[in-house]
Amino acid sequence: MHETVLLVGGGGREHAIARALADSDAELYGCAGTRNPGIAALAAGFETLDTTTPQAVVAYAEGVDATLAVVGPEAPLQAGVADALAESGVFPFGPKADAARIETDKAYQRRFMREHDIPGCPEFATFDVMERACEHIDDSDGDLVVKPAGLTGGKGVRVIGEQLTPAEAKEYLRESKYDRVVLEERLVGEEFTVQAFVADGDVRTTPAVQDHKRAYEGDEGPNTGGMGSYSAATRELPFMTEADYDAAVSIIEETVDALDDYTGVLYGQFMLTADGPTVVEFNARFGDPEAMNTLPVLDTDFLDVLTAARDGHSLPELAFDERATVCKYAVPAGYPENPDAGAKVGIDSESAGDALLFYASVDERDDGVYTTTSRAFAVVGLAESIEEAEQIAADALDAADTDGLRVREDIGTADLVESRIGHMAELRGHEG
Ligand code: AMP
Ligand code: GLY
Q1: 154-167 pLDDT, tens per residue?
Q2: Which domain holds residue 387?
Protein backbone atom coordinates (compact mmCIF):
# COMPACT_ATOMS: atom_id res chain seq x y z
CA MET A 1 0.00 0.00 0.00
CA HIS A 2 1.17 3.49 -0.76
CA GLU A 3 1.80 5.49 2.40
CA THR A 4 1.79 9.17 3.17
CA VAL A 5 4.23 9.88 5.98
CA LEU A 6 4.31 13.04 8.06
CA LEU A 7 7.70 13.72 9.61
CA VAL A 8 7.65 16.00 12.64
CA GLY A 9 10.87 17.90 13.38
CA GLY A 10 13.52 19.70 11.36
CA GLY A 11 16.99 18.79 12.65
CA GLY A 12 19.80 16.60 11.36
CA ARG A 13 18.10 13.58 12.88
CA GLU A 14 14.92 14.27 10.93
CA HIS A 15 16.86 14.88 7.71
CA ALA A 16 18.33 11.37 8.24
CA ILE A 17 14.83 9.97 8.77
CA ALA A 18 13.62 11.70 5.59
CA ARG A 19 16.55 10.25 3.65
CA ALA A 20 15.79 6.77 5.02
CA LEU A 21 12.23 7.10 3.68
CA ALA A 22 13.13 8.75 0.38
CA ASP A 23 13.47 5.51 -1.59
CA SER A 24 10.44 3.85 0.01
CA ASP A 25 6.98 3.72 -1.43
CA ALA A 26 5.96 6.72 0.61
CA GLU A 27 5.09 10.30 -0.03
CA LEU A 28 6.77 12.44 2.59
CA TYR A 29 5.59 15.65 4.22
CA GLY A 30 7.64 17.55 6.77
CA CYS A 31 6.85 20.08 9.45
CA ALA A 32 9.11 21.88 11.90
CA GLY A 33 9.67 25.23 13.58
CA THR A 34 12.21 26.18 10.91
CA ARG A 35 12.46 25.03 7.33
CA ASN A 36 15.07 22.32 6.82
CA PRO A 37 16.13 22.59 3.16
CA GLY A 38 17.33 18.97 3.12
CA ILE A 39 13.96 17.61 4.22
CA ALA A 40 12.06 20.05 2.04
CA ALA A 41 14.00 18.81 -1.02
CA LEU A 42 12.95 15.21 -0.29
CA ALA A 43 9.35 15.98 0.65
CA ALA A 44 6.19 16.66 -1.32
CA GLY A 45 5.44 19.46 1.13
CA PHE A 46 6.97 21.23 4.11
CA GLU A 47 5.14 23.40 6.60
CA THR A 48 6.64 25.69 9.21
CA LEU A 49 4.63 25.33 12.39
CA ASP A 50 5.03 25.01 16.15
CA THR A 51 5.54 21.26 16.60
CA THR A 52 4.72 21.50 20.31
CA THR A 53 1.16 22.55 19.47
CA PRO A 54 -0.56 19.19 18.90
CA GLN A 55 -3.53 20.74 17.04
CA ALA A 56 -1.22 22.39 14.52
CA VAL A 57 0.51 19.08 13.74
CA VAL A 58 -2.81 17.22 13.53
CA ALA A 59 -4.29 19.84 11.20
CA TYR A 60 -1.32 19.46 8.84
CA ALA A 61 -1.43 15.65 9.08
CA GLU A 62 -5.11 15.69 8.17
CA GLY A 63 -4.54 18.24 5.43
CA VAL A 64 -2.05 15.98 3.65
CA ASP A 65 -4.00 12.75 4.40
CA ALA A 66 -1.11 11.24 6.34
CA THR A 67 -1.35 7.50 6.96
CA LEU A 68 1.59 7.48 9.35
CA ALA A 69 3.66 9.95 11.32
CA VAL A 70 7.19 9.87 12.70
CA VAL A 71 7.89 12.21 15.58
CA GLY A 72 11.62 13.05 15.71
CA PRO A 73 12.31 15.33 18.71
CA GLU A 74 11.39 14.99 22.37
CA ALA A 75 9.58 18.30 22.83
CA PRO A 76 6.56 17.36 20.64
CA LEU A 77 6.39 13.96 22.38
CA GLN A 78 6.24 15.71 25.73
CA ALA A 79 3.58 18.07 24.39
CA GLY A 80 1.34 15.14 23.46
CA VAL A 81 1.72 15.22 19.68
CA ALA A 82 1.66 11.40 19.48
CA ASP A 83 -1.48 11.32 21.62
CA ALA A 84 -3.23 13.87 19.42
CA LEU A 85 -2.20 12.17 16.16
CA ALA A 86 -3.44 8.78 17.45
CA GLU A 87 -6.73 10.36 18.47
CA SER A 88 -7.18 11.82 15.01
CA GLY A 89 -6.55 8.41 13.44
CA VAL A 90 -2.98 8.98 12.21
CA PHE A 91 -0.62 6.33 13.58
CA PRO A 92 2.35 7.97 15.32
CA PHE A 93 5.71 6.19 15.49
CA GLY A 94 6.72 7.75 18.77
CA PRO A 95 5.41 7.28 22.31
CA LYS A 96 2.49 9.09 23.88
CA ALA A 97 3.36 11.78 26.44
CA ASP A 98 2.89 9.41 29.35
CA ALA A 99 5.28 6.79 27.93
CA ALA A 100 7.76 9.50 26.85
CA ARG A 101 8.22 10.32 30.56
CA ILE A 102 11.00 7.72 30.43
CA GLU A 103 12.91 10.62 28.83
CA THR A 104 11.06 13.75 29.85
CA ASP A 105 11.13 13.12 33.62
CA LYS A 106 14.49 11.85 34.84
CA ALA A 107 13.20 11.36 38.40
CA TYR A 108 10.44 9.09 37.06
CA GLN A 109 13.00 7.32 34.85
CA ARG A 110 15.22 6.41 37.81
CA ARG A 111 12.30 5.38 40.01
CA PHE A 112 10.93 3.26 37.17
CA MET A 113 14.24 1.40 36.87
CA ARG A 114 14.42 0.82 40.62
CA GLU A 115 10.79 -0.27 40.92
CA HIS A 116 11.16 -2.79 38.09
CA ASP A 117 14.56 -3.99 39.19
CA ILE A 118 16.10 -3.15 35.84
CA PRO A 119 19.85 -3.74 35.93
CA GLY A 120 22.28 -0.87 35.38
CA CYS A 121 20.59 1.76 37.56
CA PRO A 122 23.05 4.00 39.44
CA GLU A 123 22.38 5.03 43.03
CA PHE A 124 20.25 8.15 43.08
CA ALA A 125 18.00 10.42 45.13
CA THR A 126 15.41 12.93 43.92
CA PHE A 127 14.71 16.36 45.42
CA ASP A 128 11.91 18.92 45.08
CA VAL A 129 13.52 21.29 47.58
CA MET A 130 16.88 22.57 46.38
CA GLU A 131 18.19 23.16 49.93
CA ARG A 132 17.67 19.44 50.63
CA ALA A 133 19.68 18.65 47.51
CA CYS A 134 22.46 20.95 48.74
CA GLU A 135 22.49 19.11 52.09
CA HIS A 136 22.75 15.83 50.20
CA ILE A 137 25.85 17.17 48.44
CA ASP A 138 27.34 18.16 51.81
CA ASP A 139 26.66 14.69 53.21
CA SER A 140 28.16 12.87 50.22
CA ASP A 141 31.74 12.17 49.21
CA GLY A 142 31.21 14.62 46.32
CA ASP A 143 31.14 12.11 43.46
CA LEU A 144 27.71 13.13 42.30
CA VAL A 145 25.96 14.22 39.13
CA VAL A 146 23.27 16.91 39.21
CA LYS A 147 20.41 16.34 36.75
CA PRO A 148 17.36 18.55 36.35
CA ALA A 149 14.38 16.19 36.10
CA GLY A 150 12.87 17.95 33.07
CA LEU A 151 14.10 18.47 29.51
CA THR A 152 17.09 20.78 29.06
CA GLY A 153 18.17 20.00 25.51
CA GLY A 154 21.04 17.90 26.90
CA LYS A 155 22.56 20.95 28.56
CA GLY A 156 21.35 20.81 32.18
CA VAL A 157 23.51 18.04 33.66
CA ARG A 158 26.55 18.99 35.80
CA VAL A 159 29.16 16.46 36.87
CA ILE A 160 30.76 17.30 40.21
CA GLY A 161 34.51 16.73 40.16
CA GLU A 162 34.63 17.12 36.39
CA GLN A 163 32.74 20.28 35.51
CA LEU A 164 32.35 21.95 38.89
CA THR A 165 33.14 21.75 42.59
CA PRO A 166 30.55 20.75 45.23
CA ALA A 167 30.24 24.44 46.20
CA GLU A 168 29.60 25.42 42.57
CA ALA A 169 27.05 22.63 42.26
CA LYS A 170 25.12 24.04 45.20
CA GLU A 171 25.27 27.50 43.66
CA TYR A 172 23.96 26.01 40.40
CA LEU A 173 21.05 24.36 42.25
CA ARG A 174 20.18 27.56 44.08
CA GLU A 175 20.43 29.77 41.01
CA SER A 176 18.77 27.66 38.35
CA LYS A 177 15.65 27.07 40.46
CA TYR A 178 14.67 23.74 38.94
CA ASP A 179 11.43 22.25 40.30
CA ARG A 180 12.99 18.84 40.74
CA VAL A 181 16.47 17.39 40.44
CA VAL A 182 18.08 13.97 40.58
CA LEU A 183 21.43 13.59 42.31
CA GLU A 184 23.12 10.39 41.33
CA GLU A 185 26.32 8.44 41.54
CA ARG A 186 29.01 9.63 39.14
CA LEU A 187 29.71 6.83 36.69
CA VAL A 188 33.20 6.38 35.30
CA GLY A 189 33.79 4.76 31.94
CA GLU A 190 33.08 5.21 28.24
CA GLU A 191 29.67 6.26 26.97
CA PHE A 192 27.76 4.63 24.16
CA THR A 193 24.27 4.69 22.70
CA VAL A 194 22.06 1.82 21.56
CA GLN A 195 18.83 2.74 19.78
CA ALA A 196 15.98 0.25 19.41
CA PHE A 197 12.80 0.15 17.33
CA VAL A 198 9.98 -0.87 19.64
CA ALA A 199 6.35 -1.85 19.02
CA ASP A 200 4.00 -4.37 20.62
CA GLY A 201 6.79 -5.58 22.89
CA ASP A 202 9.11 -6.31 19.93
CA VAL A 203 12.60 -4.84 20.23
CA ARG A 204 14.99 -4.47 17.28
CA THR A 205 18.34 -2.98 18.20
CA THR A 206 20.82 -1.09 16.04
CA PRO A 207 24.64 -0.85 16.22
CA ALA A 208 26.21 1.03 19.13
CA VAL A 209 27.25 4.64 18.54
CA GLN A 210 29.48 6.96 20.56
CA ASP A 211 28.36 10.59 20.72
CA HIS A 212 30.53 13.50 21.89
CA LYS A 213 28.59 15.90 24.07
CA ARG A 214 31.37 18.27 25.04
CA ALA A 215 31.87 21.33 22.88
CA TYR A 216 35.66 21.14 22.33
CA GLU A 217 38.38 18.72 21.33
CA GLY A 218 39.52 16.33 24.02
CA ASP A 219 36.05 16.41 25.66
CA GLU A 220 36.59 19.86 27.09
CA GLY A 221 34.05 22.63 27.55
CA PRO A 222 30.31 22.74 28.13
CA ASN A 223 27.81 20.06 27.15
CA THR A 224 26.10 20.50 23.80
CA GLY A 225 23.31 18.70 21.99
CA GLY A 226 26.11 16.47 20.58
CA MET A 227 29.07 17.47 18.36
CA GLY A 228 29.38 14.26 16.40
CA SER A 229 29.50 10.52 16.68
CA TYR A 230 30.90 7.33 15.23
CA SER A 231 29.94 3.69 14.85
CA ALA A 232 31.93 0.64 13.78
CA ALA A 233 31.26 -1.95 11.09
CA THR A 234 30.26 -4.29 13.94
CA ARG A 235 27.40 -3.88 16.43
CA GLU A 236 29.82 -3.09 19.24
CA LEU A 237 32.39 -0.27 19.37
CA PRO A 238 36.18 -0.84 19.47
CA PHE A 239 36.39 -0.30 23.25
CA MET A 240 33.59 -2.80 23.98
CA THR A 241 33.15 -6.55 23.80
CA GLU A 242 30.16 -8.26 22.21
CA ALA A 243 29.11 -9.20 25.75
CA ASP A 244 28.98 -5.49 26.70
CA TYR A 245 26.73 -4.80 23.72
CA ASP A 246 24.50 -7.76 24.61
CA ALA A 247 24.25 -6.57 28.22
CA ALA A 248 23.03 -3.17 26.98
CA VAL A 249 20.48 -4.86 24.72
CA SER A 250 19.20 -6.92 27.69
CA ILE A 251 18.70 -3.73 29.71
CA ILE A 252 16.68 -2.25 26.84
CA GLU A 253 14.61 -5.43 26.53
CA GLU A 254 13.88 -5.54 30.24
CA THR A 255 12.88 -1.89 30.13
CA VAL A 256 10.50 -2.48 27.22
CA ASP A 257 8.97 -5.46 29.09
CA ALA A 258 8.34 -3.21 32.08
CA LEU A 259 6.96 -0.32 30.01
CA ASP A 260 3.33 -0.66 29.17
CA ASP A 261 2.72 -0.54 25.44
CA TYR A 262 5.65 1.54 24.18
CA THR A 263 5.85 2.43 20.48
CA GLY A 264 8.71 4.26 18.80
CA VAL A 265 12.44 4.42 19.31
CA LEU A 266 13.85 3.69 22.74
CA TYR A 267 17.33 5.15 23.01
CA GLY A 268 19.57 3.82 25.76
CA GLN A 269 22.59 5.88 26.70
CA PHE A 270 25.05 3.79 28.66
CA MET A 271 28.24 4.26 30.57
CA LEU A 272 30.45 1.24 30.08
CA THR A 273 32.01 0.95 33.53
CA ALA A 274 34.51 -1.62 34.80
CA ASP A 275 31.43 -3.60 35.90
CA GLY A 276 29.59 -3.40 32.57
CA PRO A 277 26.99 -1.04 31.10
CA THR A 278 25.07 1.30 33.41
CA VAL A 279 22.22 3.51 32.21
CA VAL A 280 23.02 7.22 31.89
CA GLU A 281 19.54 7.90 30.52
CA PHE A 282 16.80 6.75 28.23
CA ASN A 283 15.44 8.86 25.41
CA ALA A 284 12.10 8.34 23.71
CA ARG A 285 13.38 8.98 20.17
CA PHE A 286 16.39 8.62 17.90
CA GLY A 287 19.55 10.37 18.98
CA ASP A 288 20.73 13.48 17.24
CA PRO A 289 23.47 12.93 15.92
CA GLU A 290 23.20 9.13 16.36
CA ALA A 291 20.35 8.77 13.83
CA MET A 292 22.77 10.01 11.17
CA ASN A 293 25.11 7.11 11.93
CA THR A 294 22.41 4.46 12.14
CA LEU A 295 19.85 5.13 9.42
CA PRO A 296 22.35 5.38 6.52
CA VAL A 297 23.56 1.82 7.23
CA LEU A 298 20.08 0.36 7.81
CA ASP A 299 19.45 -1.97 4.86
CA THR A 300 15.94 -2.86 5.99
CA ASP A 301 13.31 -0.52 4.59
CA PHE A 302 12.47 1.86 7.44
CA LEU A 303 8.94 2.16 6.05
CA ASP A 304 8.47 -1.61 6.67
CA VAL A 305 9.32 -1.03 10.33
CA LEU A 306 6.75 1.78 10.53
CA THR A 307 3.93 -0.10 8.82
CA ALA A 308 4.57 -3.27 10.86
CA ALA A 309 4.35 -1.18 14.04
CA ARG A 310 1.11 0.39 12.88
CA ASP A 311 -0.51 -2.81 11.63
CA GLY A 312 0.38 -4.89 14.69
CA HIS A 313 2.71 -7.16 12.73
CA SER A 314 5.92 -8.35 14.25
CA LEU A 315 8.74 -5.92 13.46
CA PRO A 316 11.12 -7.04 10.67
CA GLU A 317 14.54 -8.29 11.71
CA LEU A 318 17.01 -5.54 10.86
CA ALA A 319 19.84 -5.88 8.36
CA PHE A 320 22.78 -3.46 8.36
CA ASP A 321 25.36 -2.57 5.80
CA GLU A 322 28.50 -3.51 7.74
CA ARG A 323 30.28 -0.19 7.41
CA ALA A 324 31.68 2.21 9.95
CA THR A 325 30.32 5.77 10.11
CA VAL A 326 31.65 9.09 11.36
CA CYS A 327 29.37 12.09 11.79
CA LYS A 328 30.67 15.59 12.45
CA TYR A 329 28.49 18.56 13.21
CA ALA A 330 29.40 22.08 12.10
CA VAL A 331 28.14 24.52 14.72
CA PRO A 332 28.15 28.33 14.85
CA ALA A 333 31.24 29.89 16.43
CA GLY A 334 30.60 30.39 20.15
CA TYR A 335 28.09 27.50 20.36
CA PRO A 336 26.61 26.55 22.79
CA GLU A 337 27.12 29.51 25.13
CA ASN A 338 27.41 32.56 22.86
CA PRO A 339 26.58 31.37 19.36
CA ASP A 340 26.89 33.77 16.43
CA ALA A 341 24.11 33.33 13.89
CA GLY A 342 24.13 34.53 10.28
CA ALA A 343 27.20 32.86 8.74
CA LYS A 344 26.69 31.59 5.20
CA VAL A 345 26.71 27.80 4.99
CA GLY A 346 29.18 26.97 2.21
CA ILE A 347 28.41 23.34 1.51
CA ASP A 348 25.89 21.40 -0.54
CA SER A 349 25.44 17.72 -1.27
CA GLU A 350 27.67 17.97 -4.34
CA SER A 351 30.57 19.70 -2.62
CA ALA A 352 30.26 17.21 0.27
CA GLY A 353 31.71 14.63 -2.15
CA ASP A 354 31.56 11.09 -0.77
CA ALA A 355 30.12 12.27 2.54
CA LEU A 356 26.41 12.53 3.24
CA LEU A 357 25.22 16.02 4.14
CA PHE A 358 22.46 16.55 6.68
CA TYR A 359 21.08 19.99 7.41
CA ALA A 360 20.07 20.86 10.96
CA SER A 361 19.08 24.31 12.16
CA VAL A 362 19.62 26.72 9.28
CA ASP A 363 17.90 29.71 7.86
CA GLU A 364 17.24 29.40 4.13
CA ARG A 365 17.18 32.78 2.38
CA ASP A 366 16.91 33.72 -1.27
CA ASP A 367 20.68 34.00 -1.65
CA GLY A 368 21.66 30.91 0.32
CA VAL A 369 21.57 29.05 3.58
CA TYR A 370 22.68 30.75 6.82
CA THR A 371 23.42 29.58 10.34
CA THR A 372 21.12 30.12 13.32
CA THR A 373 22.26 29.80 16.94
CA SER A 374 22.03 25.97 16.92
CA ARG A 375 23.93 23.18 15.20
CA ALA A 376 23.97 23.96 11.47
CA PHE A 377 24.74 20.83 9.48
CA ALA A 378 26.51 17.50 9.73
CA VAL A 379 28.59 15.44 7.34
CA VAL A 380 28.73 11.66 7.58
CA GLY A 381 31.44 9.43 6.13
CA LEU A 382 30.78 5.72 5.57
CA ALA A 383 33.61 3.23 5.00
CA GLU A 384 35.13 -0.11 5.96
CA SER A 385 36.86 1.39 8.99
CA ILE A 386 36.18 4.26 11.39
CA GLU A 387 39.45 5.87 10.32
CA GLU A 388 38.49 5.89 6.63
CA ALA A 389 35.00 7.16 7.45
CA GLU A 390 36.58 9.97 9.46
CA GLN A 391 38.74 10.91 6.48
CA ILE A 392 35.68 11.16 4.24
CA ALA A 393 33.90 13.42 6.73
CA ALA A 394 37.04 15.54 7.24
CA ASP A 395 37.56 15.91 3.46
CA ALA A 396 33.99 17.15 3.05
CA LEU A 397 34.54 19.78 5.74
CA ASP A 398 37.88 20.79 4.22
CA ALA A 399 36.20 21.37 0.87
CA ALA A 400 33.44 23.44 2.47
CA ASP A 401 33.52 27.09 3.37
CA THR A 402 33.28 26.87 7.17
CA ASP A 403 33.93 30.52 8.04
CA GLY A 404 32.03 31.31 11.22
CA LEU A 405 31.56 27.61 11.97
CA ARG A 406 33.36 25.18 14.23
CA VAL A 407 33.74 21.40 14.21
CA ARG A 408 35.41 18.91 16.53
CA GLU A 409 38.29 17.63 14.41
CA ASP A 410 39.05 14.78 16.83
CA ILE A 411 35.79 12.84 16.48
CA GLY A 412 36.40 9.47 14.85
CA THR A 413 40.18 9.89 14.51
CA ALA A 414 42.43 6.90 15.21
CA ASP A 415 43.97 8.78 18.17
CA LEU A 416 40.64 9.37 19.79
CA VAL A 417 39.42 5.80 19.28
CA GLU A 418 42.73 4.49 20.67
CA SER A 419 42.34 6.68 23.73
CA ARG A 420 38.86 5.21 24.34
CA ILE A 421 40.26 1.70 24.08
CA GLY A 422 43.10 2.61 26.45
CA HIS A 423 40.68 4.17 28.94
CA MET A 424 38.51 1.04 29.10
CA ALA A 425 41.56 -1.24 29.35
CA GLU A 426 42.85 0.86 32.25
CA LEU A 427 39.49 0.73 34.04
CA ARG A 428 39.28 -3.00 33.57
CA GLY A 429 42.78 -3.34 34.91
CA HIS A 430 44.64 -4.78 31.99
CA GLU A 431 46.75 -3.55 29.11
CA GLY A 432 44.90 -2.50 25.95
P1 AMP B 1 22.17 13.67 29.77
O2 AMP B 1 21.61 15.04 29.55
O3 AMP B 1 21.44 12.86 30.78
O4 AMP B 1 22.46 12.97 28.47
O5 AMP B 1 23.60 13.87 30.40
C6 AMP B 1 24.56 14.63 29.74
C7 AMP B 1 25.91 14.05 30.02
O8 AMP B 1 26.20 14.08 31.40
C9 AMP B 1 26.03 12.58 29.65
O10 AMP B 1 26.29 12.40 28.30
C11 AMP B 1 27.18 12.15 30.52
O12 AMP B 1 28.41 12.50 29.90
C13 AMP B 1 27.00 12.98 31.75
N14 AMP B 1 26.34 12.17 32.79
C15 AMP B 1 25.02 12.04 33.00
N16 AMP B 1 24.79 11.20 34.03
C17 AMP B 1 25.99 10.80 34.48
C18 AMP B 1 26.44 9.95 35.55
N19 AMP B 1 25.59 9.35 36.39
N20 AMP B 1 27.78 9.78 35.69
C21 AMP B 1 28.66 10.41 34.88
N22 AMP B 1 28.31 11.22 33.89
C23 AMP B 1 26.99 11.43 33.68
N1 GLY C 1 22.86 12.49 21.23
C2 GLY C 1 22.17 12.89 22.39
C3 GLY C 1 20.72 13.00 22.23
O4 GLY C 1 20.17 12.82 21.16
O5 GLY C 1 20.07 13.25 23.21
Answers
A1: 778 999 998 899 99
A2: 190-418
